[in-house]
Design brief:
The complex is a heterodimer of chains A (about 625) and B (about 350).
Chain A: E1 5-8, E2 10-18, H1 23-36, E3 40-46, E4 61-69, E5 80-85, H2 88-94, E6 98-107, H3 113-118, E7 135-139, H4 141-148, H5 156-160, H6 163-174, H7 180-189, H8 194-213, E8 220-223, E9 231-237, H9 238-253, E10 257-261, H10 268-275, E11 283-286, H11 290-302, E12 306-311, H12 313-329, E13 333-339, H13 356-361, E14 371-372, H14 379-394, E15 397-403, H15 404-408, E16 410-414, E17 463-465, H16 480-495, E18 507-508, E19 512-519, H17 523-535, E20 540-545, E21 547-549, H18 555-560, E22 562-569, H19 574-583, E23 588-591, H20 600-613
Parallel strand pairs in A: 1-8, 2-5, 5-6, 6-7, 10-11, 10-12, 12-13, 13-15, 14-15, 19-20, 19-22, 22-23
Antiparallel strand pairs in A: 2-4, 3-4, 9-16, 14-21, 18-20
Helix pairs in contact in A: 1-6, 6-8, 7-8, 9-10, 9-14, 11-12, 17-20
Chain B: H1 35-49, E1 56-60, E2 75-78, H2 84-94, E3 99-105, H3 106-112, H4 114-123, E4 127-133, H5 168-174, E5 179-184, H6 188-200, E6 205-210, H7 222-225, H8 227-233, E7 234-237, E8 244-245, E9 251-256, E10 259-264, H9 286-293, E11 302-309, H10 315-330, H11 335-339, E12 344-347
Parallel strand pairs in B: 1-2, 1-3, 3-4, 4-6, 5-6, 7-11
Antiparallel strand pairs in B: 5-11, 8-9, 9-10
Helix pairs in contact in B: 1-6, 3-4, 5-9
Classes of the chains: A alpha/beta (about 625), B alpha/beta (about 350).
């Protein structure tokens, strides 16, 4: 007899185990399947910087959290409905994320004394009463996988590596998801190792059948598809959306893409992604260091290509002198900074938004640059495309300021139509521009952009460089007044980008008590909080800034319409400083610098606190 | 074998002269600086290369020598300290048809830009590197450089420098350079010939040019450049020729075990048959390494000329091939198909 199925609206699952246990793999597979059957989904991979920390240790725990729903969602969820703990260390690290009465699935085979000790447990937590507030499912996951695969020719260590698919089989049963997408993926992944195709599928099926057969699992759950706008969708991670956005900008502009990079977490996937697209004419150059990586991008830009470099904070520190050269040379360049937790090497696999002021001010002299930030994984596509558009139109380096949370996170993306992509026009200077001699710093009166004259064009031979330039002619100049004029022109050119920006979207109350002002990867948590407040009828709104330099022209007016401006950031208040100094308002910061994203409940309680202060609650 | 990618001036087009390569900017090196000669020889040789000047790009870093691009009426980019090789690599990759020239100095290329220098050599872009070696920091007014001799007394090393200098030729060879040569600011004919050979070489061409800084390190190379001492202190490398030198052409270089030594060819003990015969096209770098190391030994003459000239694939050609092959195999990229790639679902 089939077991009962309970309809629920949403669920959050956290897979956790040793970094070699394959939690990221099954998390990604669960995400793919969940997206393909029509739920909205958001993910949070959380893994250590070490490739394989000592097995069973706290340092080696790798987790993958996903949240799916029949409604629109914006975050990977605060607390989990299900925690799959493959060993005691995973339990120790993640148990505090499990909701009361949540489902805890543990692999009891890994709870031997040695593993308990490695995780710092004096007593076996499965034996004491600390777990009574959860629904605990004790599963001999390793033994069951070995039994299921005993007929295969694989060695025991090989068999044990399949146990993550046993766990995935269980979760697919628990949430009534089909196994076919995962099977298809396994077949493609192990196409050259058929014995692994067979074994992983056997493990997957065994996990599924186990749940169906055992009395432990009495109920399964179903989450109906979410309501999406009509269109074609795919599941996408932020870095992959960045890759596609860059390829799209190259394709639509006709400018060949040259991407210079040096491997660094969490930006390397952009290099890996772009390297696949040679058939789009994409050149990827893995260089000797971060400086060379930006150097080739600048050289390519000078030559008339779309020059792009990508890194994270430490790499940006190394690139800053070269970015400044591109700034004064007024060449189009896109610089991707996928932020991670700093300072210095910091916590390379954890998220943070602490490079904003570095991007604003981290260059010698006065060096204004446009800075734009994506707000969620799929938004990386549109935002990096916009970075390319601005770079080309205004002949300037543009900072694309993403962060680890959205770079590694995934969600469904409505694939855009090519006709909806804005035009990017290189408008190279031509030989006809030389009637009065070519003047490389003669500007477009509207945008203040200078001509982009690529080598190979007869009659436009000219010299540029890092020395101060004479207005119009571009000759080296130490003239006092010319220098001040050039400093002002470069600032004005960036400021004018705001002239052509669309009005800022205000979600929620058009005016009222609190404006939640955010940027970057905090979008999901802030928007969910704002939606809850609006549903409760509170006069609260949310503005999420894509353009951080220049700020949108209407931002000042919007800020005036609210009693309190609350700026949640994953730093100690960087946008806060900029807003306070730009608009002379007493904005309030809400700061979390833990390498972990905001929870909705944290934001909600901060709002309650402010409402109480202003006598609303 | 000597084919270049840089597009040629079409037949019938007016020929260029030296003055076509002189920009409208005043040259601002110290009077008497060796850089003037290098600039003049470069401007003189350019018309002979047969490429339109719009296809020529000079790229430099920081230092006295790096002002060079401002004085050439071609495309030019005066970049930042040590990074010219990176920017030049991007320029060449983005447009392999350009003739790219990197102008650098001993500090720029070997100190702050040392990392880029070695990687440029191994990648073998078809670019030319002119390293003006004056063994001193000129623009910052006289500190010792990575090619200054140990014990050099300068403003920053009043008791003498303690670090061992680089041998630029050895460094280039060790980094896999496919064309390595040395010339002199005070030997215009030789310098022009070497610059032309560098241009004709397909791959990264490296020329170390001994350049006199008459303000901060005057006479550093006089023993190699002045009439009365030159013949006895230099040996001119010529392919397939024995290493003969000296005012009387009566001395040569013989290999004694692993050690090059100077021998007389006229006293009956040795003849030119005993001397090292230069082979600049040898794939193996052993001979070139021996020759390079002669500069480190006081009683041996300094070799001038081409140490090595071999043909290896260029980075930009290998990359371009990858693109062409990918297009043939997968078809020209289609953005709509790319965006819709993988597992998708439709909501109606």
């Amino acid at each position: 007899m089939r077991k009962p199925v309970e309809q629920i609206e949403e669920a959050t699952i956290l897979f956790a185990g040793d970094s070699g246990d394959g939690s990221q793999t099954i998390g990604t597979q669960m995400t793919e399947t969940t997206a393909l059957i029509g739920n909205d989904v958001a993910t949070l991979p959380d893994y250590p910087a070490e490739i394989r920390a000592p097995a069973g240790s706290i340092a080696g725990v790798s987790g993958f959290q996903l949240h799916f729903s029949s409604e629109q969602i914006h975050t990977p969820g605060d607390l989990c409905d299900v925690l799959v703990a493959m060993n005691p260390a995973a339990l120790k690290v993640h148990l505090n994320k499990l909701k009361p009465n949540g489902i805890l699935i543990v692999n009891t085979d890994n709870f031997a004394r040695r593993n308990l000790r490695l995780a710092g447990y004096e007593e076996d937590p499965l034996e004491d009463d600390k777990l009574t507030k959860y629904q605990v499912f004790r599963v001999e996951l390793t033994q069951l996988t070995r039994k299921a695969l005993e007929a295969t020719q694989l060695s025991v260590p090989e068999i044990d590596r399949c146990k993550n698919f046993f766990a995935l089989g269980m979760i697919l049963w628990l949430y009534n998801r089909p196994m076919e997408y995962t099977m298809k993926w396994i077949k493609a992944k192990f196409a050259k190792r058929p014995q692994y195709v067979e074994s992983n599928i056997l493990a997957l099926r065994a996990g599924n059948t186990y749940c169906e057969a055992t009395e432990q699992f009495a109920v399964s759950y179903d989450v109906k598809p979410a309501d999406f706008e009509p269109g074609t969708y795919r599941n996408i991670e932020g870095n992959m959306a960045t890759v596609l956005g860059l390829v799209a900008a190259s394709y639509q502009s006709g400018l060949p893409l040259v991407y210079g990079s040096y491997p660094i977490t969490p930006a390397s996937d952009i290099l890996h992604g772009l390297a696949q697209y040679r058939n789009f004419g994409v050149v990827t150059m893995q260089m000797e260091d971060e400086i060379a990586a930006v150097g080739v991008a600048i050289g390519a830009a000078f030559s008339g290509s779309l020059g792009v470099t990508g890194s994270s904070g430490p790499g940006l520190a190394l690139k800053s002198e070269a970015i400044n050269l591109a700034m004064i040379a007024e060449l189009p360049l896109v610089v991707c900074n996928i932020q991670r937790a700093g300072p210095s090497t910091g916590m390379p696999t954890k998220t943070e938004q602490s490079d904003l002021l570095q991007m604003f001010y981290g260059r010698n002299g006065e060096s204004p640059l446009p800075i734009i930030a994506p707000s969620r994984p799929f938004d990386c596509f549109e935002t990096v495309y916009e970075a390319c558009r601005i770079a080309v139109k205004y002949r300037t380096p543009v900072i694309f300021l993403s962060d680890l949370y959205i770079a590694m996170g995934a969600e469904p993306w409505k694939i855009p139509q090519l006709s909806d992509l804005p035009e990017i026009r290189p408008d190279f200077a031509g030989s006809a521009d030389t009637r009065n001699g070519f003047e490389p710093y003669l500007r477009d009166p509207e945008t203040l952009a200078r001509p982009w004259a690529k080598p190979g064009t007869a009659g436009l031979e000219h010299r540029i460089g890092g020395l101060e330039k004479s207005d119009v002619t571009g000759h080296v100049s130490y003239d006092a007044e010319n220098h001040q004029r050039m400093v002002e022109i470069r600032a004005e050119k960036v400021a004018r980008i705001a002239d052509a920006l669309p009005p800022t979207e205000v979600f929620g109350a058009p005016e009222g008590d609190i404006l939640l002002l955010g940027w970057g990867g905090t979008y999901g948590a802030i928007r969910t909080t704002a939606e809850n407040c609006v549903a409760d009828g509170l006069p609260i709104a949310h503005v999420h800034l894509r353009h951080l330099n220049p700020f949108p022209k209407d931002l000042g007016d919007i800020l005036q319409r609210f009693k309190k401006i609350l700026i949640p950031e994953q730093n100690s208040g960087q946008l806060l400083q900029l807003i306070r100094s730009t608009y002379l308002i007493d904005a309030i910061g809400f700061n979390k610098v833990q390498g972990q994203p905001f929870h909705v409940f944290e934001l909600a309680s901060k709002i309650d606190e402010i409402l109480e202060e202003i006598g609303r609650a | 074998m000597r084919r270049k990618r840089s597009s040629r001036i079409p037949a019938g087009a007016p020929t260029l002269s030296k003055k076509d390569f002189v920009s409208d900017q005043d040259v601002r090196w110290c009077p008497g600086c060796g850089d003037y000669s290098i600039l003049a020889q470069t401007q003189r040789i350019m018309p002979e290369l047969g490429i339109p000047k719009e296809n020529i790009v000079f790229i430099s870093g920081i230092g006295c020598s790096s002002r060079f691009p401002y004085y050439m009426d071609t495309y030019g980019f005066h970049t930042i300290h040590g990074r010219a090789p990176t920017i030049a690599s991007g320029v060449k990759m983005a447009n392999p048809d350009l003739s790219v020239w990197i102008i650098t100095g001993d500090g720029d290329a070997l100190s702050i830009g040392g990392n880029h220098f070695i990687h440029l050599m191994r990648r073998n872009f078809d670019v030319n590197v002119l390293l003006f070696n004056n063994r001193i920091y000129g623009l910052t007014k006289g500190q010792y450089s990575p090619t200054s001799e140990q014990g050099k007394q300068t403003k920053s090393t009043p008791l003498g420098s303690v670090d061992t200098p680089f041998n630029p030729i050895s460094l280039a060879l060790a980094s896999g350079a496919t064309f390595v040569a040395r010339s002199l600011d005070r030997d215009p004919n030789h310098l022009r010939a070497i610059i032309k050979s560098a241009f004709e070489h397909k791959g990264t061409s490296f020329i170390e040019i001994y350049q006199n800084c008459n303000v901060f390190n005057d006479g550093a190379f006089f023993q190699y450049t002045e009439k009365d001492t030159k013949a006895d202190n230099t040996v001119v490398l010529e392919h397939n020729e024995p290493l003969v030198f000296g005012a009387e052409r009566d001395k040569g270089i013989r290999l004694n075990g692993f050690q090059p030594e100077v021998v007389k060819t006229t006293n009956g003990q040795y003849s030119t048959d005993d001397l090292i015969v230069h082979d600049q096209y040898a794939e193996d770098t052993t001979l070139a390494n021996f020759l390079a190391r002669m500069s480190d030994t006081l009683d041996l003459p300094d070799p001038i000329g081409i140490f090595r000239s071999i043909r290896h694939p260029c980075y930009e050609d290998l990359m371009t091939n990858q693109i062409r092959t990918a297009k043939e195999r997968m078809g020209e990229g289609n953005l709509e198909a790319l965006l819709n790639d993988g597992e998708t679902w439709t909501v109606s």
